[in-house]
Amino acid sequence: MSANRWGRWIRRVLATGRSQHIRQLRRRPLHLEMLEERVTPATFIWTGAGNNNNWSNPNNWQGGVAPTSAANPDLVFPSGAARLTNTNDISGLVVRSITFSGSNYRLQGSPITLAGNIFVATGVSNILMTMSSITLTTTVGVTVNNLADLTITSSINGAATAVLTKLGPGNLTLSGSNVSYLAPIDIQSGRLIITNVNALGATTAPTIVNTNAQLQIRNIPNPINEPLIINGFGPSNDGALYNAVGNSVWAGTITLDSNSSIGVAGGTTLNVTGLVTDTGAGRDLTKVGPGQLIFSRTGGNTYRGTTTINNGILTIRDPQSLGAGSIFGAPQSGTPQARTIVNYNPITNEAGTLQLEFIPLTSTNPPPTLAVGDPNGILQNPSQPYNPTTNPYVGFQ
Question: What is the mean pLDDT of residues 104-119?
Answer without folding.
Answer: 98
